[in-house]
Amino acid sequence: MLLTPEQQQQLIAAIRQAEQETSGEIRVHLEANCPNGDPMQRAIEVFKHLGMHQTRQQNGVLFYLAHDDRKFAVLGDSGIDAKVPAGFWDTIKDLMRQHFAKNDYVEGLSRGIEQAGRQLKQYFPSVDDDQNELSDDISLG
């Protein structure tokens, strides 16, 4: 699944909208296959590779999708993970899975990003000196 430029812009817009009122950071990483077969383990590797663990408040969220393998993971850094309700990431994954089942990856990712943004806004509202610490661009494997 290669995203069209329009689809990439749609996801970037969803990220920017979700990050608008929070100090949290959201990234999306897409690749065809999950190299080790375990999407959560791969998400942890990508999270580190993208430097997401270096945000000031440990409030980064990674949406990882290996589209040909039909595997995905949502990974929140320790700061946000400690604050969201139990089962929150599973709720987001269930919402995304509904769209993925219809091969609507862009809509599934957009809805997941929106939900994560709401939690980030609640627990990590933006502050005066807030900076976009990580790129909003889609990373590709």
SSE layout:
Layout (H helix, E strand, L loop, with lengths): L4 H15 L5 E7 L7 H11 L10 E7 L4 E6 L1 H4 L6 H13 L4 H19 L15 E2 L1
Parallel strand pairs: 1-2, 1-4
Antiparallel strand pairs: 2-3
Helix pairs in contact: 1-5, 4-5
Protein name: TPM domain-containing protein
Organism: Fibrella rubiginis
Keywords:
single chain; alpha/beta; 44% helix; globular; TPM_dom
Short recap of the structure:
With 141 residues, the protein is of the alpha/beta class. The chain has five helices and four strands. A hairpin with a 4-residue loop joins strand 2 and strand 3 (71-76).
Q: Round the mean pLDDT to the nearest integer and report it.
A: 90
Rg from Cα: 14 Å
Overall number of structural domains: 1
Q: How much β-strand is present in the residues?
A: 15-25%
Helical content (DSSP H or I, runs of 4+): 40-55%
In whole angstroms, the N-to-C terminal distance is 12 Å
The number of helical segments is: 5
Biggest sheet features? 4 strands, mixed
* DSSP summary, beta strand count: 4
CATH class: Alpha Beta
Task: Explain what you see.
With 141 residues, the chain is α/β, with parallel strands linked by helices. It has helices at residues 5-19, 39-49, 78-81, 88-100, 105-123, and strands at 25-31, 60-66, 71-76, 139-140. It has a single domain (5-123), classed as Diaminopimelate Epimerase, Chain A, domain 1. It has five helices and four strands; from the N terminus they run H-E-H-E-E-H-H-H-E. It has a four-stranded mixed sheet with strand order 3-2-1-4, with helices on both faces. Strand 2 (60-66) and strand 3 form a beta hairpin. Helix 1 (5-19) packs parallel to helix 5. The longest helix is centred in the last third of the chain and has 19 residues, at 105-123. InterPro entries: TPM_dom. Residues 2-118 form the TPM domain. This is TPM domain-containing protein.
